[in-house]
Amino acid sequence: MDITTLVPQFGGFVWTMAAFIIALSVIVAIHEYGHYIVGRWCGIKADVFSLGFGPVLYSRYDKHGTKWQIAALPFGGYVKFAGDSNAASGKDEDAMSEAAADPVRLRSTMHGAPLWARALTVAAGPVFNFALSIIVFGSIAMTLGNVREPLTVDAIKPLPNAVEGLEQGDILQAIAGLKIPSSTQSPEYRVYMDALPLEPVLDYTVLRDGVTLTVPGPYPQPALVGSVGPETAALEAGLASGDVITGIDGAPVFAFQQLKDAVEGSEGRPLLLSVWRAGDMLEFTLVPKSTDEPQPDGGFVNVLRIGISSDSAITAATETPGLIESAQRGVAGTWRIIKGSISGLWHMVTGAISSCNMSGPVGIAKVSGAMASQGAMSFINFIAVLSTAVGLLNLFPIPALDGGHLTFYAYEAVRGKPPSDGALRILMSIGLTMVLGLMLFALFNDIFCP
Known about the structure:
alpha+beta; four-stranded antiparallel sheet; 12 helices; 44% helix
C-alpha cells in the first residue's frame, strides 16, 4: 500500500507532513522544556535536550553544560538528566556509582535527587502541555471577543438572494415577533433559535439611531458553511468556509437545520449539493459518514455527518474580554478536551463506540494539514488540542510514560523506598511494549479503518 494515498490532496503530501512536523515539534518542545526547566530549578542537571531522535543534525552546549540538539527523526524528543542511561530515564548504574562518593554530584542526578524534586520534574512535562493549551485557548477567546449584549449587527454575511434591510449598528430586539434572550450564551438562546419560523425571510425588530423599526432579514442560521472538519466528506468533496448550500438533490434549502435533517435521513447514500460560492453556482457530490458524536452528558450518539459547522447570517459586534475571563475560558476549553478524551477512551474500551476513533501518526498528520490549510488560527487551535491530548496521555500510569514514573514515586512515598532496580527494569520493558503496541494499533486504524 502506498502510504501517500492515505494523505489528503490539499497542498500535497509535503505540505501535510510539514504541518504535522511543525505541530508535533512545538508540542514536544514545550513538553520537554517543562521537564528541563523545572528539573534545573530543582537542582537536577540535564545532560541532553533533544528535539527528535536518531542522528544529530545540529547541537551546541550551553553554560550549564547541557547539550541542545536537533535530531533527524522529528517524531518526539527527550531530556536526558544526569544519572539517566537513556531517554526513558532508566538508571545508569555506573554513573550513579561514581556519583555516590560525592553528595553534591549525587544530588544533581535524577536518581539521587529528593523525591519531591523528581516528582515535580516529571510532572512538569504534562503541566506545560496543559499550560500551552490554556494560553492558546485564552488568546483565541480574547482575539475573537465576546458577542456584545444586546445583540448588535456588525455585518451581514454574503448570501445568495440577499435580503436588504438590516444595517451595521442595528440593535436586535426581536425576530419574527419573538423577543431575543438577554444573552447569546444562555441555554434559552438555543431554544429560542429552534423556535423561530423556518422561513427564508423573517421580520427583525431593531433599534436604529434610537428609533424602533421592523425590517426584513435572512433566516439567522442559513445553510452557510462556517468551517470544514478534517477527514470529512465535505473536505474530500471540496467544500470551503463561506459556501452556501442552496439545494440537496434538487430540493431547495435555506436553513442549516434542513441540511442537517437531509444528511441524517440519507441512510448514507450520495448527496448532490448545489452550492453558491462568491456569486458562482457549483455542484458537489458527497457521501455522509457515520460518526460517533459526543453528547453533553458525556455519552456518544452515532449519526451521519458531512463534517461542516454552521455559521450565522449576521456577524455580531464583539467586545474584548479581560485577562481573567480569557484565562477562565482557556481552562474551560482544556478541561473540556480532557473530559472528552477520557470519555471517548472509556467508550472505546467498553465497546460503546468504534476503536477507529483512535488515530495514529497518519491520521494526526492528515488533521494537521487540514487545519493548516484553513488558516493560522485553525492550525494554532489544533496544536492546543493536540497538546492537551499529549499531556493527558503522558499522565497515564504506564511505565516509561511520565504517569508511570509518578506512580513509582507514589509507591516510594508510601513505602519509604523505591521499587528495586530489577523490578523497575521489568516494569519499564512492559511499559515500552505497551506504548509500542498502542502506537501500532493506532497506525493499524489509520491504514485499515474506513
